[in-house]
User: Which sequence fits this backbone?
């Protein structure tokens, strides 16, 4: 019996250790992915700021930057989000949708030789909305509540249990 208890204790401790390691690996991977995302977004943003609007290739450069940024947002939305940061998942999905629309509208604004200011304005608004969600994510990951965010408290009983 003592041997069984000892084996059970070793097994239990091993499971706890492995689960803890798995969680640490998940958090470490998430941290590395988020760091990479923010570094890439910052780099692309700097490249966008460096574009000379009067240059001949300004539109192509901006399209390229926006496409690269869209890829980063797709990466963000596809990340495995640890349960501790579940609120980040919806924000990442929303940010992706806004960025997709910004890229689409910007491309449409310069589709032909005619520049459409309403499309550029709408693209800018979508871009700003995407970046606002990224800022919310950064604030949440720092353990703070984003300014202007609505807090919805839940007692966990809003669901209807399945009964037969």
Assistant:
């Amino acid at each position: 019996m003592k041997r069984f208890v000892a084996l059970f204790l070793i097994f239990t401790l091993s499971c706890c250790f492995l689960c803890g390691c798995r969680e640490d690996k998940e958090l470490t991977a998430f941290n590395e992915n988020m760091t990479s995302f923010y570094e890439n977004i910052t780099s692309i943003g700097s490249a966008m700021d460096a574009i000379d609007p009067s240059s001949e290739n300004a539109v192509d450069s901006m399209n390229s930057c926006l496409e690269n940024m869209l890829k980063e947002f797709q990466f963000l939305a596809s990340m495995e989000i640890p349960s501790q940061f579940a609120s980040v998942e919806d924000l990442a999905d929303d940010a992706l949708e806004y960025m997709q629309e910004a890229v689409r509208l910007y491309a449409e604004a310069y589709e032909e030789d005619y520049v459409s200011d309403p499309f550029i304005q709408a693209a800018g608004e979508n871009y700003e909305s995407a970046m606002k969600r990224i800022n919310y994510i950064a604030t949440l990951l720092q353990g703070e509540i984003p300014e202007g965010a609505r807090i919805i408290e839940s007692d966990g009983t809003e669901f209807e249990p399945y009964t037969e």
